[in-house]
Amino acid sequence: PEETQPIEIRETISISIAEDLVALGENCSLDTWSLDKRVVLEADISLRGVDFEPIATFGGIFEGNGHVISDLNLTGDFAPAGLFGIVQSTGRIRNLTVEGTVEPGGEGSNAGGIVGALSWENDLDPEDDLSTIGDKSLNFSVKTRGLVYKCVNHGTVQAKKQVAGGIAGKSTLGAIISCEGYGYMDSEDANWVGGIVGLSQAEVRDCWAKCGLVGKSLVGGIAGEADEVTDCRSLVTVTCEGEYVGAILGKLTEDGTAENNVFVESDLLAGIDGISYQEAAEPVTYRALMALDH
C-alpha cells in the first residue's frame, strides 16, 4: 500500500526533571508541535505534588531509555486519558515505565496507563513498519504508524464508561509490542477492559500481563476485544459479571487472529470468551509460564 511521506526529526529535546515534562505537555496541546521532534528521557521523574495534565497529542519519538515516570495522578476530566492522551499515527513511545493512577473524571472513556488512544492511518500495511523497532533502527525519521514498544505500566487505570487498558485504552491501527502490564484495571462499570489494551483493532504482540481486572463486560487479560494478538502471556484475575471474559481476550473480532498465546490454567477462567484454544489461547502451568521470557 502507498505510504505517506516519512517525517524528518529536526530537533531533540531532553527531559530530566518534572518541570520539563510539564512543559512538554503544554507544548503538545497543538497536534503539529511534536511531529518533527525526538524527546529523550534522561532520568527517572516523580510527579508527586506536580500539577500535571496529559500530554494531549504526540506525534514524534519519545525515548524512555528504561526510565520511570512515577506518581502520575490523573483525575481530571480528560478523554482520552493517560500519560499521553493521543499518540498520533507518526508517534513512537519506547522503553518507558509508568507508575501511578489514571482515573479520569467525566465520562472517563479511553483510559490507558501510558496512552489513552493510539492513532492510525487507514492506507498502511501494519507489517511494513515493524523493522523500525530495533534499538538503533529508528534513526531520525519515522513513518506514519503509531507504536508503543517495550513500555511497562505499574499503575491503576479506571474508566467509568468504556475502554481501559494497562498500556493503552484504544488502539486503532498502531502496534503494541513487547509491553508489560502489572497494574490494576479497576473499571467496574466499563466495557472493554484489558491488561494491555482495552480495545484493539490492530496488532498486539509479545506482551505480558500480570494484573487484576474489574469490568462490566468484554474483559480480557491481554485485551477486552482485539483483532490480532500473538505471542502474549497472561497471569490475571478477572471480576466481571457480564459477557465476553477471558484470560487472553474477552472477545476476538470477527476474522481476527490469535496465535501462540498462553495463560496460567484455572478452573475459573478460560482463554477467549469462556473457551480455551490450543496454541491460540492455551492454558499452561504456572511453572511453564514463568519459564518463558518476559
Question: What is the overall shape?
Answer: globular
Gyration radius (Cα, Å) is 18 Å
Portion of residues within helices: under 10%
* Overall residue-averaged pLDDT value: 86
State the separation between the terminal residues, measured CA to CA: 33 Å
Strand content: over 45%
- Total count of strands: 29
Secondary structural class: mainly beta
Q: Are there runs of 5+ residues with pLDDT below 50, and where? A: 1-5, 120-143
Q: Helical stretch count?
A: 2
Describe the main β-sheet briefly.
13 strands, parallel
Structure description:
The structure is a single chain. The protein has 294 residues and is mainly beta. 5% of the residues lie in helices and 46% in strands. It contains two helices and 29 strands. The protein has helices at 18-27, 286-290, and strands spanning 7-8, 11-15, 37-41, 45-46, 55-58, 61-63, 68-74, 84-87, 92-94, 97-102, 111-112, 115-118, 141-142, 147-149, 152-153, 156-157, 162-165, 168-171, 175-177, 180-181, 184-194, 197-205, 208-220, 223-230, 233-239, 245-246, 249-259, 262-264, 282-284. Strands 2, 3, 5, 6, 8, 9, 12, 14, 18, 19, 22, 24 and 27 form a 13-stranded parallel β-sheet that branches. The longest helix is centred in the N-terminal third of the chain and has 10 residues, at 18-27. Mean pLDDT is 86; it is low at 1-5 and 120-143.
